[in-house]
Design brief:
about 40% helix, five-stranded parallel beta sheet, alpha/beta, Rossmann fold, globular, single chain
């Protein structure tokens, strides 16, 4: 069974994007598609990194644990809010922390906003950063407009049928990329 790491990017108080991360964990586990770990950046509370992990003389245990979870995963779902057209510093911080861990890693991106566009304005800048470090960004998108209305605090969608239908396409694309990468290793 594949393993997927879900990065919950927001560290803000009252964040809504974490609801979407919880939803994906539930959805993937309920459909027995993969084992799932949520990497909640709010819980990690990383400092601003001064150097990539491979160049740090004494990285903390939390940093090493995070890096190992990304490296060990077959694929990653990044759930990120859009803040003023960009993604949060907490996410940029951990994207730039790693390098080899991202190499050819299938990464699916879900953008979230309180507004009507679902965070899609952040997609290009995040994809570009991931491309530069050689991650494999999955072409499917999962924008979530008005996240505070679309999901409750436990990640349960208001429109379960519609949300599950969209999630199926998004997660299937990630799973296809994971399978394709595994075949290329042979």
């Amino acid at each position: 069974m594949a393993s997927i790491a879900i990065i919950s990017s927001s560290v803000r108080i009252g964040r809504n994007s974490h609801r979407v991360a919880l939803y994906f964990k539930q959805y993937i586990e309920q459909h027995q598609l993969a084992s799932v770990t949520i990497l909640d950046l709010q819980q990690y509370q990383f400092p601003i990194f001064e150097e990539r992990l491979r160049l740090q003389p004494n990285p903390s245990e939390k940093v090493l644990e995070f890096a190992e979870k990304i490296k060990a995963s077959d694929g990653v779902i990044i759930v990120t809010p859009e803040y003023n057209g960009g993604y949060p510093a907490s996410l940029k911080n951990v994207v730039d922390l790693l390098y080899n861990e991202w190499h050819r890693k299938p990464v699916a991106i879900s953008t979230v906003s309180d507004g009507i566009f679902g965070g899609t304005q952040v997609m290009t800048s995040l994809q570009f950063s991931l491309w530069k470090i050689r991650a494999w960004t999955v072409p499917a998108m999962f924008p979530v407009p008005s996240a505070q209305k679309a999901f409750d605090e436990n990640g349960n969608p208001v429109d379960k049928e519609g949300t599950d239908k969209r999630a199926a396409l998004f997660v299937q694309e990630l799973m296809w990329c994971i399978e394709a990468k595994n075949k290329m290793k042979a």
